[in-house]
Amino acid sequence: MSGARENITILNNAEMESLLDMRTCLEAMEDAYRDLGLNQAINRPRSHTYFPTQSKRWPNFNYRFKSQEGGIEKYGVWALRITSDMAGFSILEVLIGAVVFMIGFSTLVLMLNNVFAKFSIEELELANIASQRIMTETILLKDTTSFDSTVDCSGLTLEVRRQVTVVGNLARISVSVVRESTGKKLIKLYNEFVIAEQ
Questions:
Q1: Minimal CA–CA distance to 40: which of 84, 3, 70, 1?
Q2: Residue 109: its pLDDT value, please?
Q3: How buried is 105 (Cβ within 10 angstroms: 0-12 exposed, 13-18 middle, 19+ buried)?
Q4: Residue 87 burial (CB < 10 Å; 0-12/13-18/19+)?
Q5: Nearest to residue 172, comparing CAs of 198, 150, 195, 197?
Q6: Which residues are CB-contacts of 139 (< 8 A; sequence separation ≥ 6)?
Q7: What is the pTM of this model?
Q8: Phi and psi for 98 in degrees, rounded to 5?
């Protein structure tokens, strides 16, 4: 038992970086994955364990323990990787992340709209109002008829299409609004309601 302990080597990240270059790492990984496929190596996926403890030094952070291990039979090697740290986000990081996400999401929506549809804000607002009105009326009146109609407002002409499919006593509704001149869809809503039995 004491002889086995003499072969244990403990390395930190800085030591690993000083001992290994990228080519050596890639060759070792390729070799290890080949043996893994032949059932001559093993790799346990990394696990994260979080402990709900916080301190004045680390507010909004929790203790985290990560571990992962594996071995290669032909080298007679077994390795264990562990990390013990505090994980989380500061309030400032969360706020910055939220702002960046919202700016990014809004920009993406505008870019996609610009590239693929080129709808104006007025068209989108009008389509939303028209589709919501038709959907609300359909549900309140329990109207099961399908129809197409046009909406004209501020020089914009949109086509509203309502499709109602009745299956048993369930009515499924889809309301879509398209630009009349190009047929491009601006919005589509789905809903359903139960028809009272006669």
A1: 70
A2: 62
A3: exposed
A4: middle
A5: 195
A6: 173, 191, 193
A7: 0.40
A8: -65, -45
Sheet containing 170-179: which strands, arranged edge to edge?
Answer: 147-153, 156-167, 170-179, 185-194
| Residue 197 backbone class (left: φ over 0; alpha: ψ -120 to 50; beta: rest) | beta
Q: Which two tokens stand for residue 140?
A: 């309140």
pLDDT value of residue 69: 92
Report the distance separating Cα 10 and Cα 65, nearest Å.
17
Q: How many separate helices (H) and strands (E) can be counted in the chain?
A: 5, 7
**Residue whose entry in the numeric block shows the structure tokens 């680390």:** 58
Q: Which residues pair with residue 188 across a beta bridge?
A: 176
The sheet that has 41-51: what strands, in order across it? 41-51, 61-72, 77-88
Q: How confident is the chain (198 residues) per 10-residue block, as mean pLDDT?
A: 62 86 87 88 87 75 88 89 81 71 66 62 78 82 86 78 86 84 78 70
Q: Which of 119, 123, 194 is nearest to 154 (CA)?
A: 123
Q: What is the DSSP string of 141-176?
A: HT----EEEEEEETTEEEEEEEEEEEETTEEEEEEE
